[in-house]
Amino acid sequence: MKMKVIWTYSGKIPEKINFESDWMNRKYVDYLIEDLIRTGRAGEIIIRDEMENEWTRKEFLKLNEELEQEPENITVYFDGGYDKENALAGLGMVIYYQKGGVNYRVRKNEKLHELENNNEAEYAALYSCMQLLEEMGVHHVPCVVKGDSQVVLKQLEGEWPCYEETLNSWLDRIEEKMKTLGIKPIYEAINRKQNKEADQLANQAMQDTVIHSHSKY
Q: What pTM does this model have?
């Protein structure tokens, strides 16, 4: 998770002056605080995260130990494919994250028969990603969500209306799951080539090749 340091200048100038750092990896936060303290010019120091939570240094140090045991810096890739002839859908999900300074990747696919079109398959794939995040213990963190479906991403962002009852149902389920987990989504549209991992998994699902892996990379 990215964080920033906010501090008050303490010196000869009588006016209260506040400074704020750029967003940074949380592992560098205390190094910066140590340097600020050495100057003798740092008054109150606050640490803020991307979810708008704030801590004192003492609170942050305790939090930092806890965060080492939880998934963070999460990027989700999703894709859905649909075979009209056989009314068959394939879902592809890839999740990259860090835990304790180690990089991990989760890859999973599913085959479904009850869906009606490609857009529904895309929604179903993203919902399955949310279920995976829940299984991983992800909560109250920002997550980058990447996919090549403009329809899904724009509708989730609220930029495009959704008139289909079935898709609205999926949209509600996804948003409810995000709310329950406390996830702050950051949507990013990518092209099919950039989404090749999730796309391949979706196609493999329709060919009865089931994949579910969780490994370091």
A: 0.90
